[in-house]
Every structure is written in structure tokens, then in C-alpha cells.
Specification:
The protein contains three helices and eight strands, in the order ββββαββααββ. By secondary structure, it is of the alpha+beta class. InterPro entries: Kinase-like_dom_sf (IPR011009), Prot_kinase_dom (IPR000719), WNK_Ser-Thr_kinase (IPR050588).
Length: about 180
């Protein structure tokens, strides 16, 4: 626990902190989607980097059915647990800023599109390993109850932890 005399330079440069105080958001934007922005964040309890996903609900104020769909999709994401699907850790609504926020696993090397631009010569063996992981993730989704169809599978929604060759699928809200 930090003391009252702690130097301010020792504090994390968080722009925002979740209601529990566990997660802190940095100002670094990792990506933007059709309805959300994703920022680099830190889980202070586990000591790991995470992705802070933020959806501005004001975009849907005239469509309560769309807001309900958004919440039902977050509930579905929370039920998915597979080594090849990006994990959802926490979710909450910030009424003051009218946003839906959720924490997910972050992949150290970014998406497959960016990774392939950086590493142009990848062996067929490595490509096959990546493809196998993508197919294992899809098999999990297709055999899940209820069945989940990705509907937006492309290299921008496939993420990689390049240090271990782990591939994970990102399920984009409002796309399945």
C-alpha cells in the first residue's frame, strides 16, 4: 500500500481507473473498431497488461434494442473460455461518461496483419501452426452452446503473442 509521502513520480500514469481500482488505463490507443476504442491498460492485482475496451453508449441512445444486444453479447463473451479466444476479464458501465467498459486479454505482438508486415519470411510450418490454432478457436465457437459464428474473421481480428507463437481470435462486438 503506498504511503501518503510517496513521490508522485512513483505512481502509474493512468488516465482512468475502473470502479474497483484494479485496472488502470493508459492514454495509449491500441486500436479502433466500428463501435469501440481499445487502450493499453494494467491489471494492478495480477501485474499484467490488459486491453481496456470502451464503447460510447451515446452512439446508441435512440436504439434501446441495440444497447440490449450489446449487453447480451458481452454476457456471451464472458461465457467463452478457450485458449484460442481472447479472454474477457471484467465489464462495467460508466454512467457518468455513458460508456460500456470491458477488460480483455492483450496480445503482445498485435494482430496478425501487423505481425506479418513486420515479419515477412514465415515458414510454412509456422503458418500451419497458426492456422491450426485459428481452426481450434473456430471449432470451440461452433460447438459452444449457443453456437457462435464469428462473421468478421480476418487478419485484423486474429491476434498473436509472438514470443510463444500463440494465436487468439478476437470477437468483435456487434459482428456475430
Amino acid at each position: 500500500m503506498p504511503s501518503e509521502n510517496e513521490d508522485q513520480s512513483d505512481k502509474e500514469p493512468f488516465i482512468e481507473i475502473d470502479p474497483t481500482g484494479r485496472y488502470g488505463r493508459y492514454n495509449e490507443l491500441l486500436g479502433c473498431g466500428a463501435v469501440k476504442k481499445v487502450y493499453r491498460a494494467f491489471d494492478q492485482e495480477e501485474g499484467i497488461e490488459v486491453a481496456w475496451n470502451q464503447v460510447k453508449l451515446r452512439n446508441f441512445t435512440n436504439d434501446p434494442a441495440m444497447i440490449e444486444r450489446l449487453y447480451s453479447e458481452v454476457r456471451l463473451l464472458r461465457s467463452l473460455m478457450n485458449k484460442n479466444i481472447i479472454t474477457l476479464y471484467n465489464v462495467w458501465r460508466d454512467a457518468e461518461h455513458n460508456t460500456l467498459n470491458f477488460m480483455t486479454e492483450v496480445c503482445t505482438s498485435g494482430n496478425l496483419r501487423e505481425y506479418r508486415k513486420k515479419h515477412k519470411h514465415v515458414s510454412m510450418k509456422a503458418l500451419k501452426k497458426w492456422l491450426k490454432q485459428i481452426l481450434e478457436g473456430l471449432e470451440y465457437l461452433h460447438t459452444h452452446e449457443p453456437c457462435v459464428i464469428h462473421r468478421d474473421l480476418n487478419c485484423s481480428n486474429v491476434f498473436i503473442n509472438g514470443n510463444v507463437g500463440q494465436v487468439l481470435l478476437l470477437l468483435s462486438l456487434l459482428f456475430y
